[in-house]
Design goal:
The chain is of the alpha/beta class and about 525 residues long. It is about 30% helix and about 25% strand. The protein has 3 domains: about 240 residues, ANL, N-terminal domain (Rossmann fold, 3-Layer(aba) Sandwich), CATH 3.40.50.12780; about 130 residues, Rossmann fold (3-Layer(aba) Sandwich), CATH 3.40.50.980; about 100 residues, GMP Synthetase, Chain A, domain 3 (2-Layer Sandwich), CATH 3.30.300.30. The two termini are about 45 Å apart. GO terms for molecular function: ATP binding; CoA-ligase activity.
Length: about 525
């Protein structure tokens, strides 16, 4: 059974990504497009479009064009979309990199992609320079000034006619975004111009920007959530992006207040801050109209607390690097635990994890997604691509869930993260939701730990907001779940290890347990 949403399908423009994103730049020429949180550096839409054209010409002067790869190793800064879209206009591909990655990881990713140019910030120039001896990087460009690197402003100064290479939107890869690697070695997700346009377009349809929208750019642009749902979708609708180098609670809250932010894209850990931190009461957040959570499952109780405390709409969507913007909550308030209904153009089916048989409503199985936003494939990994992409275009997500009678999708867990206790499947996400409702729990992660008698035992790592005991928390869970789902061990911890978009790093916790 194939599930579709209630909204009609929409045509995907047959154009390049940058042409789509800047389609209203002339209309909004005087409006601020991107600005640093300090207010000291920014670009209007007219300046942004001109800077992209000039930079594309500067890249062409360096011999950069179709088939070439430019890498960006930087936090969120106003010039990030200029570098990204200039490379796209020149006909190249952009690989976005995480500044927190080790030099070894970055070298591997750069060699896999064959990147020739690397754009970075002054704080990362030393790391970038060291990478030139281990990769194909020919030149380092820096936002600002730094010894040993070419200033990005040198490209901005090129006023020749920008390049106009032929683009096949359905085939030409414009972005390489690496998967989180939570289940193995990170893989380069190949996203075409059409994929990226569909992602931005669908975001605008399910979560349209209001007039005068001001977005605080907290999720990193090097992640699919920040790149597609936030950066490109916001710019395509004429919003103002206020960029932050890194998340710090008080700086974040002050930015919302001082810049009169109207929309937030956040991860669940920030939702917990907004729901429970006493810091929130020190700042005026009344400008907020909407909050969209992504990257990991948002606890319904936390969402309710945020909604009641701030008086604004909060929702969550569902997607993954390979297929961002697949489902989105539309109702206010949304159905607890749901990630919403299909976005336009998106099809879904649920299959039995053992037999592959298609399932009906209210039956848990693996979630498969099909639509114009689904990736072209994994870079240099044909076998891995075949494992997740069916010949008919459906993508295996690796997530377990079901569609209910109202067409809403509920995520149960990652298939590979299910705990096998005495032959029964136990969901870490379910147990985490139960524990997060306890007043003494600030954050939690649950994993399975090896046990000779039962196979695996559910163990909780807990960040406590008040003094507690393992016995208290285990009893609390036992009263609310089936006997086989009970938490059997509790370890208190200062901080739950998470990726930049809030996903729990369960491998780190498993390694901690095995030592």
């Amino acid at each position: 059974m194939i599930f579709t949403g209630s909204r009609p399908s929409v045509p995907i423009p047959e154009t390049s990504l940058t042409s789509f994103v800047l389609s209203r730049a002339e209309e909004y020429a005087a409006r601020l497009a991107t600005v640093d949180v300090t207010g000291g550096n920014g670009y209007t839409y007219g300046q942004l479009a001109a800077a992209i054209r000039h930079t594309a010409s500067g890249l062409r002067a360096r011999g950069f064009g179709k088939g070439d790869v430019l890498a960006i190793l930087a936090p969120n800064v106003p010039e990030y979309p200029i570098a990204f879209h200039a490379a796209a206009v020149a006909g190249g591909t952009v690989v976005v990199l995480n500044p927190l990655d080790t030099a070894d990881d970055l070298a591997t990713l750069l060699n896999d992609t064959g990147a020739r140019l690397l754009v970075t910030v002054p704080a990362e120039v030393a790391k970038a320079t060291a990478l030139t001896t281990r990769t194909k990087i020919e030149e380092i460009l820096v936002f600002g000034e730094a010894d040993g690197a070419t200033s990005f402003s040198a490209l901005l100064a090129d006023d020749r006619t920008p390049p106009d290479p032929p683009i096949d939107p359905a085939r030409d890869v414009v972005a390489l975004v690496h998967s989180s690697g939570s289940t193995g070695h990170p893989k380069g997700v190949m996203l075409t111009h059409r994929n990226m346009i569909a992602k931005a377009l669908l975001t605008g349809l399910v979560a349209p920007n209001g007039e005068g929208e001001r977005v605080l750019a907290v999720p990193p642009f090097h992640h699919a959530f920040g790149l597609t749902m936030m950066m490109n979708a916001s710019l395509s609708q004429g919003a103002t992006l206020v960029t932050m180098l890194r998340f710090e609670p008080e700086a974040f809250l002050k930015a919302v207040q001082d810049h009169r932010i109207t929309r937030l894209y956040i991860v669940p850990t920030i939702a917990v801050l907004l729901a429970r931190s006493p810091l929130v009461d020190r700042y005026d957040l009344s400008s907020l109209r909407s909050i969209i959570s992504g990257g990991a499952t948002l606890d319904p109780e936390i969402a309710r607390q945020v909604r009641e405390r701030l008086g604004c709409h909060i929702s969550q969507g569902y997607g993954l690097t390979e297929a961002m913007v697949s489902f989105m909550q539309l109702e206010d308030p949304p159905t607890p635990g749901s990630v919403g209904r299909n976005a336009p153009n998106v099809e879904c089916k649920i299959i039995d994890v053992t037999t592959g048989e298609e399932l009906g409503r209210n039956q848990d199985g693996e979630i498969l997604i099909r639509g114009p936003h689904v990736m072209k494939g994994y870079l240099n990994a044909e076998e891995a691509t075949r494992k997740v992409l069916e010949p008919d275009g459906f993508l295996h997500t690796g997530d377990l869930g079901h569609v209910d009678d109202d067409g809403e999708l509920f995520i149960v867990d990652r298939i590979k993260e299910l705990i096998k206790y005495n032959g029964q499947q136990v969901s870490p996400v379910e147990l985490e939701a139960v524990l997060m409702a306890h007043p003494k729990v600030a954050d939690v992660a649950v994993i399975g730990v090896p046990d000779e008698a039962t196979g695996e035992l559910p163990k909780a790592f807990v960040v406590a907001s008040e003094p507690s005991t393992p016995e208290e928390l285990m009893a609390y869970v036992a009263e609310r779940v089936a006997p086989y789902k009970k938490i059997r061990r509790v370890e208190f911890i200062d901080q739950i290890p998470r990726t930049p978009v809030g996903k729990i790093e369960r491998r780190t916790l498993k390694e901690r347990t095995s030592k």
